[in-house]
Amino acid sequence: xxxxxxxxxxxxxxxxxxxxxxxxxxxxxxxxxxxxxxxxxxxxxxxxxxxxxxxxxxxxxxxxxxxxxxxxxxxxxxxxxxxxxxxxxxxxxxxxxxxxxxxxxxxxxxxxxxxxxxxxxxxxxxxxxxx
Amino acid sequence: xxxxxxxxxxxxxxxxxxxxxxxxxxxxxxxxxxxxxxxxxxxxxxxxxxxxxxxxxxxxxxxxxxxxxxxxxxxxxxxxxxxxxxxxxxxxxxxxxxxxxxxxxxxxxxxxxxxxxxxxxxxxxxxxxxxxxxxxxxxxxxxxxxxxxxxxxxxxxxxxxxxxxxxxxxxxxxxxxxxxxxxxxxxxxxxxxxxxxxxxxxxxxxxxxxxxxxxxxxxxxxxxxxxxxxx
Amino acid sequence: xxxxxxxxxxxxxxxxxxxxxxxxxxxxxxxxxxxxxxxxxxxxxxxxxxxxxxxxxxxxxxxxxxxxxxxxxxxxxxxxxxxxxxxxxxxxxxxxxxxxxxxxxxxxxxxxxxxxxxxxxxxxxxxxxxxxxxxxxxxxxxxxxxxxxxxxxxxxxxxxxxxxxxxxxxxxxxxxxxxxxxxxxxxxxxxxxxxxxxxxxxxxxxxxxxxxxxxxxxxxxxxxxxxxxxxxxxxxxxxxxxxxxxxxxxxxxxxxxxxxxxxxxxxxxxxxxxxxxxxxxxxxxxxxxxxxxxxxxxxxxxxxxxxxxxxxxxxxxxxxxxxxxxxxxxxxxxxxxxxxxxxxxxxxxxxxxxxxxxxxxxxxxxxxxxxxxxxxxxxxxxxxxxxxxxxxxxxxxxxxxxxx
Lengths: 131, 231, 404
Hints:
The structure holds three protein chains of three kinds.
Chain A: E1 15-18, E2 25-26, E3 51-54, E4 57-67, E5 79-86, E6 91-96, E7 106-117, E8 120-129
Parallel strand pairs in A: 6-8
Antiparallel strand pairs in A: 1-2, 1-3, 4-5, 4-7, 5-6, 7-8
Chain B: H1 5-10, E1 23-26, E2 32-37, H2 43-50, H3 61-76, E3 83-90, E4 93-102, E5 107-115, H4 122-137, E6 142-145, H5 150-159, E7 163-164, E8 182-185, H6 186-196, H7 205-210
Parallel strand pairs in B: 5-6
Antiparallel strand pairs in B: 1-2, 2-3, 3-4, 4-5, 6-8, 7-8
Chain C: E1 4-11, H1 24-39, E2 50-54, H2 67-74, E3 81-85, H3 91-104, E4 110-118, H4 124-132, H5 147-162, H6 166-180, H7 194-199, H8 203-206, E5 209-211, E6 214-215, E7 224-233, E8 248-257, H9 272-285, E9 294-297, H10 302-311, H11 320-326, H12 342-346, H13 350-366, E10 380-387, E11 392-400
Parallel strand pairs in C: 2-3, 2-4, 9-10
Antiparallel strand pairs in C: 1-7, 1-8, 4-7, 5-6, 8-11, 10-11
Helix pairs in contact in C: 1-2, 3-13
């Protein structure tokens, strides 16, 4: 059977993974569930491949930094990064699009191009002010 | 002095340049560095300071020192047009030299930046002071910039956000070797000057007086075993 | 477990060694031969049973693998056993831990541990990228996040929660730089003054931000260098070779891990791996925080010197800055920290740091530190080597031999 979904354009999402046995969400994808120990098999052959839940929506800023010393390949003068906490309790690191961040501020998680690698566009979190 | 006709023809026409206003910066180790412009009469101590570094064959010291020596000697002998030289001095001892040239009222060319006392970001402070002179004191619109050292160049390219005019080559060339150039414009300068240009004015008269008579360094960490008195 | 002594120590200059005609293994060999001379076994070097090498960037930066085997040949130590340990910036202490375990288990008698790094051969941007490979590839590295970025975020949160000020951080920098001026191996020997890096109206150009609120003088430099220690079992007949210097006991070793992704930590300000590794080391040594005379704490970002000192029990959580202000952690204080200058001023060749910290412990305990930076009558010294951003930490406690 051909899975025609493979030919669809990739959705701009970052996924949390849901354990099929206890339903706990985790990000990034583990190989063993932190709560119940269930195994994950990305191929879905030996164990079930876990359900992917897009991680998005409202989040709160826990801490941030404006970083001037960037790695090779980045030509910006600086980038702002932050760690946020989503309403479902999961946390993530990502780019902050806010000029004057403040700890505790409410943000919304978008997904965009964070890095260009050879033959690959890397998508990731971009946290912005709520509209 | 009345200059003879031949000599007059050999000298380039000169624009009357406003003098840089001296400032003082406290470096990380607590020492105070005075940044001021030098006069033609101080050429001797400048050349004396630069010369030994021509023999340091690493970190691009040899080429920067050789070129800067030629530029300052050329300025002294009236064979380079519209050059200015700024020095950083701690207690009168020269710790860094930068120089530039003016093409016309609007356009300048950054020549060289030489750090003699390392580890205190003196090169970065003096480069910024050079740009301050071009834009704030001399009222220019843009400065052409290249570099010999790849690290230094990328640092300026990224940190100052220079405009890339490499595709205008060969029509627009930087006179340091005739290479493709980048440009710092007034508007780009205005964006970064608060972040890059340091220094306090006016300089306390006692501190300024320490830099009245410039001295060449007694030793160079780049030249182990060098002793000025034995030269 | 058998008791293990450190019988020889060696160190190279830390700084820019990339322009010399030496490669990574040469630099490690230099430190190793220094240690052999210190132990007095250069002619009898073949008594070394096992060589353990600590290095992080050999494969990525220096394009070399099988480094431990390479070092053995460079030192003419064949047929000693040899392996490489890579544990990020904690490689050094991990290598010492493994050497200790080899001896304590009875498998070998004499181990040489050498840590080294030659990371200035690449540009600062590539170096930053190399260190960032410690982070989670998808959730952290891909964003261009770096260790300084996490250092900045941690410092901001710490300042917010405990009221740490820029000025107090600057005081730690001044202390470490002052200590380094007396350390002949240190990378940065120019001292800095509080006025210049904090009170200065030109502070933004003299001490610019690297990753707000971390400034240039709150983060360690990029360094090349190597350090080496030689260890021997107390009950081994080979101790007969080591009569030159006072042997120092490795009394406790412990390590622990924490989540890889910084965002997965329950409390992003708690360094549980530090606390647990210290607990395990204290337990093995039969000691507690109040027994420690001085310490080398991994201050890659200055705030870590404070946070680590709290997690290992020297001060209450959030209260270490008061000790800094009172001068408790200075060389002549009651609990000197980073007498070598710390990573901030001594330098941080990542693979060498863990071994360099233990080098300092031994030097102080032997009473051999340079004038002006010798701790008075030290009995026990502690080194905490921090890997990744706190997800793998190794603690080593060394003690003067108890005279019965």
